[in-house]
Design a protein that fits this description.
Layout lengths: L6 E7 L5 E7 L8 E10 L2 H4 L17 E8 L11 E4 L9 H4 L9 H7 L8 E5 L3 E3 L6 H5 L1 H14 L6 E5 L3 H13 L2 E6 L2 H9 L4 E4 L5 H8 L5 E6 L6 H11 E9 L14 H6 L3 E4 L5 E2 L2 E2 H10 L5 H4 E6 L3 H9 L1 H4 L3 E5 L1
Helix pairs in contact: 5-6, 5-11
Bound molecules: zinc ion (2 copies).
The site of one zinc ion has 4 residues, from loops.
Length: 356
């Protein structure tokens, strides 16, 4: 039996939408198959940024859904990990017995949000507890901070699976932030040719390093002209929207304009809350049979667990997670970490990780 302090530090959302570090009880192992882990690294996600300094959003809650850590204690039914193990932690926790959980689409479970916020989607704290099924041992050569950002790769692999990207295709990735860049890596692994658009030079530089076929700075160049030029006037086989937020009102339409007849537009960027209704070119979507493919998190794909697919790629040294992590902060400096992402033009941030 390991002796623990009863209290831990955690970052709570304030009424103003930033964070305050407070003491709170360490979560308990409430089920026989639960694991208690010390959080060692937690990534700041673009979706977290949608609620940064937005008053009254998630007030009083502990958030954060990209994490890795060390197992501290396990319930009696846990077989896959033991105290002291270094683990990647998947933060999607669903009910396990509804229709969607039953067919492997646990990311669509109606109870997902409630259960994940109560268990493992509390990365901005010192400890988390949740089902053992979400804990995956990582070897010593995989650092915690790299394992923590597997959630980003998970969404990107789900986008690849949902769109069936394959060798011989030309895709356009709109947005060169962490989602766009991780997707670029996976599209390359799948064998397609990737054009990536963005508005930050440091992100487009990274895209070049990661093997983008072409990069387009849409602040300086006409994206549509360049893409038509690069695809023989046809447009891209698949376009991935990886911006979201309030800009989605513009970027989704941009993506539709980049797609070829019979192509696909995948929507990865999370929309800002309370976004007003906006127009897209339904005429083109219909007449040219453009498939719109929403992508929300990840789950199983066929027999494979998508989190495990990207975990194996990371373990095998095929991902560039290390290069994507530009900044690290201790939990106490979480507000500074979020500011660093918010001011990425100045800070040149790509992926920011809290380390504990
Ligand atoms: Zn996320
Ligand atoms: Zn369920």
């Amino acid at each position: 039996m390991i002796m623990l302090e009863k209290m831990m530090k955690a970052a709570f959302k304030t009424p103003a939408g930033d964070f305050e570090i407070r003491e709170t009880p360490i979560p308990k192992i409430t089920q026989p198959d639960y694991v208690l882990a010390k959080v060692k690294a937690a990534g700041v996600c673009g979706s977290d940024m949608n609620f940064w300094k937005v008053p009254s959003q998630f007030e009083g809650m502990i958030t954060g859904h990209e994490l890795a850590g060390e197992v501290i204690e396990t319930g009696p039914a846990v077989k896959n990990v033991k105290p002291g193990d270094r683990v990647a932690i998947e933060s999607l926790v669903a009910c396990g017995h509804c229709y969607w959980c039953d067919v492997g689409q646990y990311h669509l479970c109606p109870e997902l949000m409630k259960i994940r916020w109560d268990t493992l989607s509390r990365a901005f704290s010192e400890y988390v507890a949740g089902p053992a099924d979400n804990f995956f041992k990582i070897p010593d050569h995989v650092p915690y901070d790299e394992a923590a950002i597997l959630d980003v790769y998970g969404t990107s692999v789900h986008a690849c699976n949902r769109t069936g990207v394959r060798m011989g295709q030309t895709v356009v990735i709109v947005g060169a932030g962490p989602i766009g860049l991780t997707l670029l890596e996976l599209v390359n692994i799948a064998g397609a040719k990737a054009i990536i658009t963005g508005i930050y030079d440091h992100q487009l530089e990274m895209a070049k390093k990661l093997g983008a076929y072409k990069t387009i700075n849409t602040r300086l160049e006409n994206g549509l002209e360049r893409i038509l030029d690069l695809t023989g006037g046809r447009g891209a086989d698949i376009v991935y929207e990886c911006v979201g937020g309030k800009h989605a009102t513009k970027t989704i339409q941009e993506c539709i304009s980049y797609a070829r007849s019979g192509g696909k537009v995948a929507l990865l960027g999370l929309l800002e809350d309370k976004l007003p209704p906006f127009k897209i070119d339904w005429g083109k979507v219909l007449l040219q049979e453009i498939d719109l493919v929403p992508v929300m998190s990840f789950a199983h794909w066929g027999n494979d667990r998508e989190f495990k697919i990207v975990l194996d790629l990371l373990i095998d040294g095929r991902l560039h997670a290390k290069e994507l992590i530009t900044h690290r902060f201790p939990l106490e400096k979480i507000n500074q970490a979020f500011d660093t992402v918010a001011n990425k033009r100045e800070t040149k941030a790509i992926k920011v990780v809290l380390t504990m």
